[in-house]
Recover the amino acids of this structure.
């Protein structure tokens, strides 16, 4: 059966639908549920991967020099 023939059989059925009562139906729910499960799995995976990250911030180069001068008592700058 060709697609055009299938559409000609479906078009008369579409005219019988009440436009005030059209809902997404079971297929819409299944698609929404599949998307929700996919997002939940992605967030769970991201949380697991972020937990594995070992990030140590490097000190700023200027702050180390200032800390050494302050510790040695050399407060006078030239």
């Amino acid at each position: 059966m060709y697609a055009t023939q299938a559409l000609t059989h479906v078009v008369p059925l579409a005219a019988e639908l009440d436009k005030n009562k059209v809902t997404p139906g079971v297929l819409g729910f299944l698609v929404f549920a599949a998307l929700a499960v996919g997002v939940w799995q992605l967030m769970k995976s991201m949380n697991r991967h972020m937990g594995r990250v070992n990030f140590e911030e490097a000190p700023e180069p200027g702050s180390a020099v200032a800390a050494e001068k302050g510790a040695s008592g050399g407060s006078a700058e030239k």
The radius of gyration is 33 Å. Residues 25-52 form the longest helix (28 residues).
